[in-house]
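A.,

Following up on our hallway conversation. C-alpha cells first:
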C-alpha cells in the first residue's frame, strides 16, 4: 500500500508554503517519482515544484476546477521550460473522476485507463477538504504500492482540535470531514501514515 503524509500548515493560505514545498520535493526524490498526480493547482506553485524535481521524462497530471488561477502562474512554468511535463485536466475530467467511479478506469482519459491503476508514484491532494475521502479512494487505485500520497492541511488550520461551537460556521463542514478523514486513515492498518504539523514563522 502507498505511504501517506498529512501536512498541516498554518498561515500558508492557498499556495503551498516554500518550506512545505521543500518537504514535498524531498518525498518526490525519496520515491524517485516520475509519474505524479495533483488535485488542487491554484497558481501552480506545487506543480512547478514537482516539475522541477522529477526527471526530464516525468509526467504530472494536474486537476483543478478553476483554470484561471493556473493561467497566472503558467508564464513562469513556461519560462522554466517545464510545460511539456504537465497535463492540466479540465473541470470535466474532475466531474468525471467524481461521478463515474465505477467506470472511470475504462474512460478515454489517459489518467484513468486501466493501465494507469497503480501506476502513479506520487499524489498531492490540496483541494476541497470535504472531498478528501473521495479523492483518497481514487488515489488508492492510482498510486502504486510503495508510492506516497500527501494530503494538505489535515488539521484544517487547527480547527479539528476545537469544539464545533468555537469554529466559524463556514469552517465547520471542513472540520467535520477532516476529522472523519483522519479517523478513517488512522484506522487503516494497511497504510503507513504520518501527520506533520507545519507552522510558518511570521
Ligand atoms: C490550496 S489551493 C492549491 C494550492 C496549490 N497546490 C499550490 O501549491 O499553490 C486549492 C485549489 O483547489 C481547487 N479546488 C477547490 N475545489 C476543488 C474541486 N472540487 N476539484 C478540484 N479542485 C478544486 C481550487 O480551485 C484551488 O485552486
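Then the amino acids I'd put at each of the 202 positions:
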Amino acid at each position: 500500500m502507498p505511504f501517506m503524509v498529512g501536512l498541516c500548515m498554518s498561515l500558508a493560505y492557498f499556495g503551498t508554503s516554500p518550506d512545505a514545498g521543500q518537504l514535498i520535493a524531498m518525498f518526490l526524490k525519496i520515491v524517485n517519482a516520475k509519474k505524479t498526480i495533483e488535485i488542487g493547482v491554484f497558481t501552480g506553485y506545487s506543480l512547478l515544484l514537482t516539475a522541477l524535481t522529477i526527471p526530464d521524462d516525468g509526467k504530472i497530471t494536474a486537476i483543478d476546477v478553476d483554470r484561471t488561477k493556473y493561467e497566472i502562474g503558467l508564464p513562469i512554468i513556461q519560462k522554466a521550460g517545464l510545460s511539456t511535463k504537465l497535463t492540466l485536466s479540465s473541470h470535466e475530467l474532475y466531474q468525471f473522476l467524481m461521478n463515474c467511479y465505477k467506470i472511470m478506469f475504462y474512460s478515454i482519459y489517459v489518467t484513468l485507463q486501466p493501465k494507469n491503476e497503480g501506476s502513479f508514484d506520487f499524489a498531492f491532494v490540496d483541494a476541497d477538504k470535504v472531498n478528501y475521502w473521495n479523492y483518497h479512494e481514487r488515489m488508492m487505485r492510482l498510486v502504486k504500492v510503495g508510492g506516497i500520497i500527501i494530503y494538505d492541511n489535515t488539521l484544517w488550520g487547527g480547527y479539528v482540535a476545537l469544539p464545533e461551537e468555537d469554529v466559524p460556521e463556514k469552517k465547520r463542514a471542513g472540520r467535520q470531514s477532516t476529522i472523519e478523514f483522519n479517523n478513517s486513515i488512522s484506522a487503516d492498518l494497511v497504510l503507513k501514515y504520518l501527520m506533520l504539523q507545519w507552522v510558518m514563522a511570521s
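The two ends are 37 Å apart (CA to CA). Curious whether your intuition agrees with the design.

B.
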